[in-house]
Amino acid sequence: MNKNIISDKNEISRIIKRLSAEILEDLKGSKDLVLIGIRTKGVYIAKRIRKEIEKQEKRKVPLGILDITLYRDDIERITEHPKAKETIIDFNIENKDIVLVDDVIWTGRTVRAAIDEIMDFGRPRRIKLCVLVDRGERELPIEPNYVGKKVVLRKNEWVEVYLKETDGMDGIVILSKRR
Amino acid sequence: MKLKRKDLLGLEELSREEIELILDTAIPMKELFTRTVKKVPTLRGKTVVILFYEPSTRTRVSFELAAKRLSADTVNISTSASSVVKGESLIDTAKTIQALGADFIVIRHPNSGAPHILSKYVSCSVINAGDGMHEHPTQGLLDLFTIREKKGRIEGLKVGIVGDILHSRVARSNIWGLKKMGAEVYVIGPATLIPKDIESLEVKVYYKIEDVIDKLDVINILRIQRERQKEHLFPSLEEYSEIFGVNFEKLKKARKDLLIMHPGPMNRGVEISGDVADSKNSTILEQVTNGVAVRMAVLYLLSGGGEIETST
Asked: Mind listing the domains of chain A with CATH numbers?
């Protein structure tokens, strides 16, 4: 297997800064902003964005954790059930500007499930989507508002985000099987 | 992660890992109860048939709510109003239910082993909701869940089960579950209501609550079935209550944090005094809430099972 690091620690931290700035510019501040990270890696990325935004805005931003397992559309089809974990949104989302955060967007199915789950908690004013990596090939009409990095992959390649919290190091990596 | 089976028939055949998976999965299920919308789309399009050959309110309602909160459709069949009274056999009834499109059959039956037989004749998942004197696995699981939630662990805890151990499927499922999870189990009751071979399950037997109460972290008090008195297994409810009824007098030497459990329905003033049932150590109503979460976890983990691998 080949491993090609396309972004290192420093670049990821620059991306987080840029995404935070884009969010603040787009939403014109952080007054009604809440961040919701999709388990597992989306949560850590959301926490980094929150840190950056709180530093700039000098106010607290609520952060929720979303587990979309019970909202998946493929429970029927998969042999091994993903382990369901808790969703933790312990604040009111009514009329809030939600920024949903995930590590990689691919088919868009995870985001569909996340939007459905959020709607069961209330009626936010709007939901925006922020991802570290967009690898294209969508199967649903869903597009992110804030993108860290776009990658185009060959047939035998896939992309992974490594984070210090889960993998011991930061990096965006393209992996490929040798043919 | 998956249960390595199509059916849930008892805790005897489950591994510790499978029990832990069910208990872990019940945590996010319980979280749903705090939301305004208490329902998730997970089992949309699935049908759960609840087939009860014995009267029951709480277990039946609990399964029905569990299925509904996962968006499954539910059908209730109580045998007094079905073709069972016309003499249809268990297996024919089950095959008919399957032909109607059920994905799950939740069955309660007075005969031990009835769910096991049924499971061999149908391809849908069979969940045992209590069979004769054999097992009541979801009650065992909800008791384990409640203990783990309250005490933070099960391993190493000393758990007493008081009452009619002989006829109790709740006791049997609890013993299997607790032993697999590494707890020490003590059974307490009149000699006539304790099975002779019980020690083969590696439990300790006591004939008086006062002799063991100071050791226990948890006491699970079983319902005494009034019909057993007619079989002369104990002289009178008054005498049973005198010796085995749990009241504050008998709990004098108990640990301050003793957890008091009862599977319900309670005979207040017989196996448990009203003030003990309502005390701050009692977790009886939470057991009912946890029952729904645990049954949701079981339905979720038994569902699906196609061949295609997961994608993001």
From this structure: 10-74+83-152 (3.40.50.2020)
Of residues B79 and B16, more confidence is placed in B16
pLDDT (tens digit per residue) in B64-104 = 999 999 999 999 998 766 666 666 788 999 999 999 999 99
Probe site for chain A from B31, B34, B307 (most A CB atoms < 10 A): B31
Q: Which residues of B touch A74 (CB under 8 A)?
A: 308, 310-311
CA distance B303 to A81: 9
Residues B251-283: tens digit of each pLDDT: 999 999 999 999 999 999 999 999 999 999 999
- B-chain residues near A85 (CB < 8 A): 27-28
Rounded CA-CA distance B26/B292 in Å is 9
Answer whether CATH 3.40.50.1370 is correct for domain B16-134+289-302. yes
Q: Kindly report whether the global pTM for this prediction surpasses the value 0.80.
A: yes
What stretch of H or E contains B119? helix B114-121
Answer yes or no: are the C-beta atoms of A162 and A169 closer than 8 Å. yes
Helix ranges restricted to H, chain B? 16-32, 58-69, 90-99, 114-121, 137-151, 169-180, 227-230, 237-244, 274-277, 284-302
Which amino acid is residue A55, in one-letter code?
K
A to B CB pairs, distance under 8 Å: 86
Digit-coded pLDDT (tens) for B167-208: 999 999 999 999 999 999 999 999 999 999 898 999 999 999
The residues of B annotated with a catalytic role in the active site are 58-59, 86, 108, 136
Which residues of chain A neighbour B300 with C-beta distances below 8 Å? 70, 81, 84
Alpha-carbon gap: B216 to the closest alpha carbon of chain A (Å): 31
